[in-house]
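Before drawing any conclusions, I needed to go through one protein's amino acid sequence and its backbone structure tokens, quoted below without any editing.
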Amino acid sequence: MIKELRSLSRIYYVVAQRTGEGAGGDRPIIQIIKNSKNMANSEHIILLKQGVAHWNNWRKNNPHVIPDLSNASIVGAELNKINFEKANLSHVNLSGIAGLKYANFEKADLRGANLSEAYLTGANLKYANLDDANLLEAQIDFAEIQDASFIHANLADANLNCTWMKNTTFCEANLINATFGSSKIFSANFHYTKQLNIMNLRKASFVFDIIMPDGIHRIMPDGTAHKKLV
């Protein structure tokens, strides 16, 4: 059923309805948010609503096509192990989705995306752009994060424990109560972040120096941090 809702300058189209019993259907509900600037590709929406297996098979057979799901709102979905590599997911709403475990977001554009309370355990976030994204209370544990950008992102209360991280920037991000416990961090830039302290990094292992809000620190094997004189 297609339902049109008008609200000021935006038009909301519900283009899929839940399948299966209750909230456990294996196909997502997708809502396209149309505005004057841009919107998701309708063909890609139709493909996604067929489920993860169908989507991943399409991606495998069409490796040169860049999916555009920008500004879409995806709810009630089970998207574990989905292939969103290089996808345009800017301003997409994936908040609260429990089924994003081991998803592939490599080189994806997630700028301005809403991933609050989403479960991204084991996700591939290599080269992903999450600038201005909302990851409030997101579960990002055991993720692979390399050359990713979280500039201005909201990671308050996020769980980044046991992640593998390299060359990642969190400049001006909100890291209030975010945790990085037992993570392997090769290098990271936390310059101008909000409320990050060494306790947030308990048991994390650093291979190189780390840029903290108050300067460059060298993390020692015993977990203590020593500020370097530049």
